[in-house]
Amino acid sequence: MTIGWYFNNTYSKLSETFKENIKPVPVTNPDLVILNKTLASELDLDFSKINKEELSKIFSGNLLPPGSNSIAQAYAGHQFGHFTMLGDGRAVLIGEHTTRSNKKYDIQFKGSGKTAFSRNGDGRAALGPMLREYIISEAMHALRIPSTRSLAVAKTGENIQREKLLQGAILTRIASSHIRVGTFQYIAARQKEDELMTLLDYTIDRHYPEIKDSNNKPLDLINLLIERQCNLVVNWMRVGFIHGVMNTDNMAISGETIDYGPCAFMDTYDPKTVFSSIDQTGRYAYCNQPVITKWNLARFAECLIPLINKDQEKAIKIATESINSFEKIYEEKWMNMMRDKLGLFGLDDKDKFLILDLLTWMHEKKADYTNTFCHLMNIDLKKVELYNDKDFINWKKRWEDRLLKNNGTLEKSIELMRNNNPLFIPRNHKVEEALEAAEQNDLKPFNKILEVLEKPYDKQEEKEDYQYPSISDEKYQTFCGT
Ligand code: AMP
Ligand code: MG
Q1: Whose CA is nearest to atom 16 of ligand 1?
Q2: Which domain holds residue 258?
Q3: Counting C-beta atoms within 10 Å of the first and last residue's C-beta, which end of the chain has fewer, N or C?
Q4: Could you count the other beta carbons within 10 Å of the beta carbon of residue 19?
Q5: For 26-66, how does the pLDDT look when each residue is reduced to its tens digit (9 = 90+)?
Q6: Is residue 322 part of a domain?
Q7: Which tens digits make up the pLDDT trace of 117-127?
């Protein structure tokens, strides 16, 4: 029976420095919870003829597909600003699968047992957080934001010890690669130029072949990453996504969102929003995400200094210039994104005031970020009294005048807005509700939220309760590394 795996593993062929050869640790009683059939077919994989018992073995790592060559990858990272040696402590990359259209994807198990990089961890993951990553990563993809994807979750049949005993599970994660800023930090810390060159060439070959013949590959790579990461963080800001743990090991060189730990979506607009219980200082708050992106990019540039120019001072100067271009690039992309959210065509001197005044109003009035834009798109909502506020009405008049500039029409503006403003985001209490039921073997709410989030920009009948934040005043908190 052919599933259609076509492995062409390249990372595992790199020297021992980069990885540990290791197999997933077999589990006692594998039980498939969910398989993403849509994603499977995008990957040219066909699981339809495989029975559940076999699927459970496959997605728990008990039965490795032919052609896989599993490894744990080495990396380092700045965690909340502090440099640490890390690596896949609870994940194994089983191989790189190539689709018929020649796209290459890492197939990784997360929660698959101890590796050389596990430190004090048990190498395992709990069912709730793995299903949470499944929901949010798939939601991000549907929101048209680059992201790792989730192919499957299987329970291990083993309990794991956290604050209490929890059901163990393994997530099958798909990524265009798992090379991180932290991978470069790990290699750079070893101070062997040939290893750094190997990683640079590998990365360019895999992600940025357009610069493989350039005169200064490391510098071009820095500039490309600045561009990609700016695009990514602007997209996060667009939908109110808060990553929560933007350590350098959680920033992918591909420009995909990676590592859905304590992330969550903002309801009420407040730039200082933080959900993660361990982010005491608000380092990774909503409004800090661009600042941190730049900080992480600077750490990336530092790694490449020895390859940019033999003269270290010169190399630092060149790299610094690139990093300092961040603000201008970000600002322009952010302004354009906000113009799209507001349906504005062309540029106008006063756009920035118009945008900032709306955000200030939303902050002051504790307005829901997503639903304010829905209101502007004339989507029917409950609780619209807030928008009868006189300041909002005055702002709206200014906005309506601006809409008609540059040959704009209301129809064209609404269309632009509908493509950029989601009606549905993963509302925190709905995510929790789905996870709680799934822990009790009831997958109905889990499947329902997945269905809603598949089409975040579309009106959906009888799904209204997914459009609103929780009515509870209790602050939503998320947890890391569980
Ligand atoms: P994260 O916060 O998920 O980005 O993880 C940071 C580091 O901790 C990575 O090196 C992970 O592999 C490692 N890690 C997280 N949870 C565990 C665990 N249960 N066992 C071993 N390593 C872990
Ligand atoms: Mg991580």
Answers
A1: 481
A2: 181-327
A3: N
A4: 24
A5: 999 999 999 999 999 999 999 999 999 999 999 999 999 99
A6: yes
A7: 999 999 999 99
Q: What would the two tokens of residue 428 be?
A: 């925190």
Q: Do 186 and 322 reside in the same domain of the chain? A: yes
Instruction: Please indicate, yes or no, whether the overall pTM of this predicted structure exceeds 0.85.
Output: yes
Q: Residues enclosing ligand 1, CB less than 6 A?
A: 86-90, 117-118, 121-124, 245, 249-250, 259, 261, 480-481
Beta strands 165-175; 241-242: pairing state:
unpaired
Per-residue pLDDT tens digits for 177-201? 999 999 999 999 999 999 999 999 9
Q: Look at the chain and report how many structural domains it folds into.
A: 3
Task: Identify whether residues 290 and 189 lie together within a single domain.
Answer: yes
Q: Annotated active-site positions, please?
A: 249
Write the residue with the smallest CA distance to atom 22 of ligand 1: 89
Provide the 8-state DSSP code for 147: B
Q: How far is 340 from 416, CA to CA, in rounded Å?
A: 6
Can you give the pLDDT at residue 407? Answer: 83
Q: What is the pLDDT of residue 481?
A: 57
Each residue's pLDDT tens digit, 248-260: 999 999 999 999 9
Pocket-testing residue among 93, 110, 118, ligand 1, by greatest number of atoms within 8 A of Cβ: 118
**Residues 194 and 166 reside in one and the same domain:** no
Ligand 1 atom with the smallest distance to the CA of 125 is: 19
Same domain for 185 and 109, yes or no, is no
Residue 79 and residue 21 share a domain: yes
pLDDT in tens, 305-336: 999 999 999 999 999 999 999 999 999 999 99
Q: What is the pLDDT of residues 209-232, one digit of tens each?
A: 999 999 999 999 999 999 999 999
Tell me the backbone φ, ψ of residue 170, rounded to 5 degrees. -125, 130
CA dist., res. 286 & res. 307, Å (int): 34
Do 212 and 197 share a structural domain? Answer: yes
CA angle 91, 44, 458 (to 5 degrees): 90
Q: Which residue has the tokens 């989730």?
A: 150
Is the pLDDT reported for residue 470 higher than 60? yes
Domain assignment present for 360: no
Could you count the other beta carbons within 10 Å of the beta carbon of residue 86?
22
Q: 472: which residues sit within 8 A by CB, 6+ positions away? A: 429
Whether residue 442 is predicted with pLDDT greater than 60 in this model: the reply is yes
Has residue 113 been placed in a domain? yes
Provide mean pLDDT across the span 131-158.
Answer: 98
Residue 293 C-alpha to ligand 2 middle, in angstroms? Answer: 16
